[in-house]
Design a protein that fits this description.
192 residues, mainly alpha, disordered N terminus, Fanconi_anaemia_gr_E_prot_C, FANCE protein
Amino acid sequence: SLMSLPLCHPQLEGLCSFLQLSTCPEPFLVRFCSWLLALTPDLSYTSAAILAEQLFLRRVLSLAQPPSRHLLAALTSFCSKYSHPFCRVLVAAVLQEPGEGAEQTKLMCELVEECLEPHSVQLVLSQVLEVPLSEKLLPVLQAVLGRQEVLPPELLDLLVLTLCQQAPAFATSLNYAKLVTAVLTVYQSQVS
């Protein structure tokens, strides 16, 4: 019944730190997420964003090996219901991380392929296109294209424009070549 109280945001952040959610054991995290998903009414966008940050941000950014099955279960369950605030918080943070971030990239690809609703897949694409393209992000774009969602024309134009502008920088990249091929295959009717 804690969450049925209309908590204001500082209170919710205080509650999270009181419960030590950012460092709690992962099996507890899974149980906590399934409890959250059962709540009615649904969490507000802002509450879900705060919880996404408190529950997952530190864990995801510090991944140096694949996430445990508990962490993955918690992530996918939360993400399946609150994918928009989840993307706004987590995907944004991963994109801004310098360096390779191989595990984070793999995780993002997995979430795009398995969990996100179409609207959130578009959000991820627009978030990726807002930052300078790097080899690290090409698999994420590939995962987005793998979903074969219908993209709004302006987003597709931005994707094609970005790929054209970046072509010289990726002259020797196999991933880039695969990506361009995928765009031409999936969206051949819209790309002239």
